[in-house]
Amino acid sequence: MGSSYQQISEAERNQIYAYRKAGLSLSNIALFMGRNKSSISREVNRNKGLRGYRPKQAQQSSQTRQRSGNPQISDFGWSYIEHLIKLYWSPEQITGRLRHKGWNDVPSHETIYQYIYADKDSGGNIYKYLRCQKLRKKRYGSDQNRRGVIKYRNSIDERETVIENRGRIGDLEGDMIVGNNQSGYLLTYVDRKSRLTTIRYSQTKQADKVTELTIEALRGQNLHSITYDNGKEFAKHYLTAKELDLTTYFADPYSSWQRGTNENTNGLIRQFFPKKMSFEMITKQQTKVAENLLNNRPRKVLGYATPLEVQFRI
Q1: Edge to edge, what strands does the sheet with 185-191 contain?
Q2: pTM value surpassing 0.85
Q3: What count of Cα atoms within 13 Å lies in the side-chain half-sphere of residue 169?
Q4: What is the tens place of the pLDDT at every residue in 40-97?
Q5: Which of 232, 196, 226 is CA-nearest to residue 310?
Q6: Beta-sheet pairing, 185-191 with 197-202
Q7: Same domain for 61 and 103?
Q8: pLDDT in tens, 99-120
Q9: Per the domain annotation, does 269 fall within a domain?
């Protein structure tokens, strides 16, 4: 059955886009294209960006996943996983069983949860098959106290040992630096192993914009995870996870030491953008200069290699 499945082609992505522009439902699109509705739904949900489903972006996302070293699950694989979910299997049971049966590319249970929640945000209903639909949420007391809680939050306690031990390239920590009088913001990412730093300027810390900047800055890299603090600017982390095919985690509240690499890097960035500095006039060139200086600076913790040398094994 798996051998007869064919991946969505670039031409089909153009068809899907045209049909959606014409107002056709996913069921009718699937009918006209001779495809299963779940395949069309999965294609749209998996590859749409902040401005909806666009064929060029969908093709680039698909190619990026194929080039990535992360486990890549085919549409047939996700169809089978959805089948197991609808048998009321938990994501942990699915991951454990598939590994037991010798599957080569098995998603983590966190990845399956994020797939379910992204499907829910796109109008899907597979989340209804979870035995406890609030399983991944902490209890915060009254509804009043739940305001602003980050949805679908994976605790830092769930991180794999390889992340804790800095055992590979591609596990990042993310944060935001605030300009004087909230005059602007710097979105910062640093690789836990190589210390390679990425800096992007933003006029706002609104979650949609932060998500867009993150995807633009990190797209095409071979990434596995991002660990954030609990800032609401990262509330749409699950869209970043879906778009970049990675898993997101959050440190415990008021525990900045759990993200020490990012905190230390932000201190280095402050050399170029001090606390009393207004960020209103920061340019892309300025952030790029700071990035280049940091990534070409030898670090004692790296045996005096530079982040670029460690990242790309120069």
Answers
A1: 197-202, 185-191, 171-178, 225-228, 247-250
A2: no
A3: 15
A4: 887 887 777 667 788 888 777 666 555 444 456 777 788 888 888 888 788 888 888 8
A5: 196
A6: antiparallel
A7: no
A8: 888 887 788 888 888 778 777 7
A9: yes
